[in-house]
Amino acid sequence: MSESTVIILGSSRSDGNTSALVHDYATIINATVVDLNDYEISPFDYNADYNDDFISLMAGLLKYDRIILATPMYWYSASAQMKTFIDRWSDLLKTEKAKGRQLRGKQVVVLATGSDKIPPNCFEQMFQLTFRYLGMDYRGMLYCQCESQYLVEHHHEAIAKFVIQMDRN
Ligand SMILES: Cc1cc2nc3c(=O)[nH]c(=O)nc-3n(C[C@H](O)[C@H](O)[C@H](O)COP(=O)(O)O)c2cc1C
């Protein structure tokens, strides 16, 4: 793959199942990993009264051709860290419009882990609808069931297939 890719990890633990999936995946496709736990990201504020890392972080992320969002499924939804990050994309439609325009056409992928065999449709739909609204080029989701911990041998084949499929989409 020739595109540059960044994987954004949003989990309550930086060394858990989603992190293990992210690092496996990053090694295969040679991607950069960014952990939201290393940044201060405030919840969306209607008055845009922020003193945090979001805008500078986003400026760096927009330099990549492809953005991968990685989250555990917490209560059938994205993690709070990931949701807070996505909520802040609203700033890109209001106060940071030049950056918002850079999201249009940007390739985007979702990586997720959860203990259920398959996630409910609503889990992926939140991402799909958001990406559609923003005009992003959604390439699909890889969901890895982790009954307790992430075991690389359980997921290697699925990852390899997904990498090929994502490039074809
Ligand atoms: C707060 C919380 C909520 C969870 N909700 C779900 C859920 O709705 N469905 C599911 O399949 N697994 C659920 N799980 C299990 C996690 O998705 C699973 O263990 C995941 O691999 C954890 O990833 P992490 O180590 O990055 O946190 C939940 C775990 C936590 C801590």
Automatic annotation (TrEMBL):
NADPH-dependent FMN reductase-like domain location is 6-136
Cell cycle as a keyword? no
Q: Which SUPFAM superfamilies match?
A: Flavoproteins
> Which keywords does UniProt give here?
Flavoprotein, FMN
Pfam family example for this protein? Answer: FMN_red
InterPro entries, sorted? Flavoprotein-like_sf, FMN_Rdtase-like_dom, ISF_SsuE-like
Q: What is this protein called?
A: NAD(P)H-dependent oxidoreductase
Q: Which organism is it from?
A: Psychrosphaera algicola
